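Figure 6 in text form: structure in, sequence out.
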């Protein structure tokens, strides 16, 4: 996720949230790289979802987690280790 892919990512996710998806689980487990543009898009997405009372959880991998921790956003971006972990943390549970 970088400056090249960020505009498309944001367009898709913005529309998805606008259509009523308040609780989002984003699987980034296969992502190799996140730059500042990608982090910015994730922060914008998290803030947008929070304004509608929803939650964003990100399924991560060691590389993504390391990048997010480097800028101290791991709590804000709700990193999870697996889909099961994210599902168990949904409001109301699953």
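Output sequence:
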């Amino acid at each position: 996720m970088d400056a090249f892919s960020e505009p498309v990512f944001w367009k898709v996710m913005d529309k998805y949230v606008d259509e009523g998806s308040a609780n989002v689980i984003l699987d980034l487990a296969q992502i190799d790289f996140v730059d500042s543009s990608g982090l910015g898009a994730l922060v914008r997405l998290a803030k947008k979802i929070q304004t509608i009372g929803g939650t964003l959880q990100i399924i991560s991998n060691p590389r993504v987690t390391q990048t997010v921790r480097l800028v101290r956003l791991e709590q804000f971006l709700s990193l999870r280790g697996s889909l099961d972990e994210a599902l168990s943390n949904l409001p109301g549970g699953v």
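Caption detail: The chain has a mean pLDDT of 92.
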